[in-house]
């Protein structure tokens, strides 16, 4: 089955984001909430999950499951976005307006994924 081009854009976006967890792990380690254990492991696992979900979007058998996984992943990542608003060190040098903007953006990304869900 051939999907709309924008589904492939989504796939590439998450694939690239997942790869960046391995290319620039320090950027992700800086924003990990202190209350989470084993930051390095979590950064690499979340990168693997993003890559797997991105690939899963491209196949009819796994597309819907990948979409649900992306929505769940984005919901979990909201914890990091809220954590980053707790202080200057947690913000990792990112302007507050960007941090605030990222929260509704997560919901836009969830809706975008949900758009392709077929039961």
UniProtKB/TrEMBL annotation:
<feature type="transmembrane region" description="Helical">
    <location>
        <begin position="65"/>
        <end position="84"/>
    </location>
</feature>
<keyword id="KW-1133">Transmembrane helix</keyword>
<feature type="transmembrane region" description="Helical">
    <location>
        <begin position="41"/>
        <end position="59"/>
    </location>
</feature>
<feature type="transmembrane region" description="Helical">
    <location>
        <begin position="96"/>
        <end position="117"/>
    </location>
</feature>
<keyword id="KW-0472">Membrane</keyword>
<protein>
    <recommendedName>
        <fullName>DoxX family protein</fullName>
    </recommendedName>
</protein>
<feature type="transmembrane region" description="Helical">
    <location>
        <begin position="6"/>
        <end position="29"/>
    </location>
</feature>
<keyword id="KW-0812">Transmembrane</keyword>
